[in-house]
Fold this sequence. Notes:
With 427 residues, the chain is an alpha/beta fold. The chain has 14 helices and 16 strands. It starts with 11 loop residues before the first helix and ends in a 7-residue tail after the last strand.
Amino acid sequence: xxxxxxxxxxDVPAYMQAVGRRARAASRVIGRAETRQKNDALLAIxxxxxxxxxxxxxxxxxxxxxxxxxxxDEALLDRLELNAARIGAMAQGLREIAALPxxxxxxxxxxxxxxxxxxxxxxxxxxxxxIIYESRPNVTADAAGLCLKSGNAAILRGGSEAIHSNQAIAxxxxxxxxxxxxxxxxxxxxxxxxxAAVGELVRMEQYVDVIVPRGGKGLIERITREARVPVxxxxxxxxxxxxxxxxxxxxxxxxxxxxKTQRYGTCNTMETLLVSRxxxxxxxxxxxxxxRAAGVELRGCxxxxxxxxxxxxxxxxxxxxxxxxxxxxxxxxEDLDAAIDHIARYGSGHTDAxxxxxxxxxxxxxxxxxxxxxxxxxxxxxxxxxxYGLGAEIGISTDKLHARGPxxxxxxxxxxxxxxxxxxxxx
Length: 427
């Protein structure tokens, strides 16, 4: 039995190097594993999680008690909590990943060249994926499942506030891997809470192929600043909805209210509402009534406050803020061009939407707004791997290389060229 994480005194660099070496070796094993073996492992992990439900709740209670002593706020404690429903959802999520098509080994774009060779591409794992996350212990199971199915070894580093929960879930993962003959090193959950482990992980270029941070802006800024390994990330989600002058008013109200109020603390929640001057006087009062009924604080530009005098004055900072709270910034803009300019200046490249009945304006918005998800007549809250049919996601990327938008199984893979000949030589 290993020492409890809080009691461990270790040489962090040496420990992380050993983790990296084991992960690299395990990546070759999982990379060649057959689909059936990977699916069986996922199902075995799901069963182990359900069987260990009482222990998971017990270990999670230790984390919750520690969190309360440390003064964590209620929102963080809520994200940290494991209960029967959330444990069941973890197991179900793993079963859903098992049911997804296996992307590994798929061959596409095979073509004969004039020389007679065939050239195509094969989808392959990235190798070793390091995932750094905060609070939610269910991410341990989700991340392990996605990495396993996509043929990657995983190094998981959860937050110190969830250390007991994460180690209990890790035991279930290892039991499932062992049941199908896969090495435990396919998924390693870091056992130390020392923050130096994060610094080591993001610099282990020889062992780690990509880092995926999931957490607050401070964590992601640190990872981006320190990493030598490529990072798949989004820094923040300043999402916009633009109500065009040719919008259907009922549709616009329904979509814009949902985009803000369906959930407040998510990265795909609308933070700024842009409204065409052409329609502002007709639609803002109706929107304001619904927002106020939902308890949303409104902050507006001068033109907005001329229509909604109860709105607080918006400052320049409001256009650049991800609230993750029941606060909404509203700006009246002249037209589509002004809306696109505003998004280009203040947007985070996450998700932006237009509400309009004009096909040419919708097409312009789709072409010209440079975000990972661009929508027409739909709530920004749809920017999600499950809603996109990916089955599950490891996170959302606002980068342009190598993955963009919700990152599912395919986003955890890459392509290599394959060439098939029959004794062909180049002349």
